[in-house]
Amino acid sequence: MSHTATCELAGPHDDEHVDEHQEGQSHSHGLVDRSILRSRAGIRAVSLSLAILTVTAFAQAFIYYRTLSVALLADLIHNFGDALTAIPLGIAFYLRSARGERLGGLGVVLAIFISALVALAQTIERFIHPRALSHLWLLALAGVIGFIGNEVAAQIRLRAGDSLGSAALVADGQHARVDGFVSLGVIASAAVVALGLQIADPLIGLIITLVILRITRESWRTVRSAHIEIDHFEHRD
Asked: Are 42 and 89 in contact (CB under 8 A)?
């Protein structure tokens, strides 16, 4: 029997069933398309912020080898750790795998915590063995670089988080914004040391280390937020 004849024999109920099936297919395809677009936009945001923060940390690392400031060392270690928080978010957008995101997130939180311990050890060593700083203008420049890098990364994450409705990206953007103000502590270290108070450098390094420990807790919350977001999409799909 031809397709035309089949359609003519089909009753009103069959027509409604076909229409509903077609609408269901169209609706399902629309969800998939939006999910793909959202995934790509999220990956772009976290990748760009990761690149910016990595460049920022490398620039600070170069200046550290010229100044040997423990405050700067604590800040650049933290910026490396902060850049890594983009990894679990990238996994969340790309794979939408709760298990993979959880494991990646745990690794990032552990890396940030270890960076805090390293910074703390360096700060204690500097208290025991004080060292005069040089190239203070370079040290101040490192603080400016850290502030600008974190603020740009924060803008990228916050805008993407708002447009995509991602609580995890918004939280990470707010995290990066706070980190920018932490980098201003490096400028304060250069200014106070220029006045003749060498002890200011390890003191500010200690403050930054304490902030890194607080950021470790916030990063854990960010990872958990991304995990919840992935679970939502997996159950919805």
From this structure: yes
**CA separation for the pair 151, 18 (Å, rounded):** 53
| Structure token pair of residue 146 | 């850290």
Report the phi/psi class of residue 123: left, alpha or beta, with left for phi > 0 and alpha for psi in -120 to 50: alpha
Give 136-185 pLDDT, tens digit per residue.
Answer: 899 999 999 999 999 999 999 899 988 887 777 787 787 788 778 878 88
Cβ count near 224 (within 10 Å): 17
Are the C-beta atoms of residues 144 and 187 closer than 8 Å to each other?
A: yes
Taking the domains of the chain in order of start, what are their residue ranges? 13-42, 54-236
Residues 6+ apart with CB under 8 A from 128: none
| Calpha distance 29→41 (Å, rounded) | 19
First to last CA, the chain: 38
CA 47 – CA 66 distance, rounded (Å):
29
Using one digit for the tens of pLDDT, what is the confidence trace for 183-206? 888 888 888 888 888 888 888 888
DSSP 83-104: HHTHHHHHHHHHT--HHHHHHH
Q: What is the pLDDT of residues 58-97, one digit of tens each?
A: 999 999 988 888 888 888 887 887 787 777 778 777 776 5
CB of 172 within 8 A of CB of 105? Answer: no
68 phi/psi in degrees, rounded to 5:
55, 35
C-alpha 129/C-alpha 114 separation (Å) is 22
Rounded Cα–Cα distance for residues 69 and 204 (Å): 10
At 109, which amino acid appears?
V
